[in-house]
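Justification of resources, computational component.

The compute hours requested in this renewal are based largely on the per-chain cost of generating structure records like the one below. Each record pairs the submitted sequence with a full structure-token output. That output is archived, and it is also reused by downstream analysis tasks.
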Amino acid sequence: ATRAMLLAVVGGLVSRAVGVLPGGRLAWTTTSGRVLGRGGGGVLQMASASSAAPSSSSLEQLGPLLSADSDPIADAAAAFGGKRVALYFGAGWCPMCAAFEPSLVAFRAAVENRAPVALVYVSSDGDDAAQRRRAKQLGCVQLADEATQAALKRRFGVWAGREAGTFGSGRRSGVPALVVIGEHGLTELQFLPAEAQGTAVLADWALDAPESVWTRP
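The structure output for this chain reads:
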């Protein structure tokens, strides 16, 4: 039933259930502590959280966080514990984001009992008020520090085209996009290029990868 719900959520991708590519091949597998998954342009190798010595926890690097209702989150470790955490790069003025987000929200609801997901909104809205409205609509955690948002865009190479004056042209993707992160050192576990592939990326999310589940405090 869960598989059927996921297929419906991502737009009737009959041959691409979560973790399965056309032809029945697995979309991800674990080999020597690494997860392999399908990304933009082919197979993407995602480093495990143990592949490098982290300098700090991801929560420390994300800094202060706000709830979807813009309230400070006192215990982010508890809020993210047991979940898969992804940075969601988006903007309210972006037509592709608006088209993608209903499926993203429905996908999160569909997997809640099996593989809960937490989304951290990295905003390209342009102002705080718009960011807060969007985070509330999407049920996303917010970054309290604008400088942190800019640093994340540079680190992962994702920003909106209209931000080229600030970040340049050397991006790997515009918005929308998702980056699944580990709980140590902001390790990138998987990149989901929704700008290029739309809702199909949701079927590629390796929800069962053990390194993507954050530890419960």
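Residues 95-110 form the longest helix (16 residues). Residues 3 and 89 are 26 Å apart (CA to CA).
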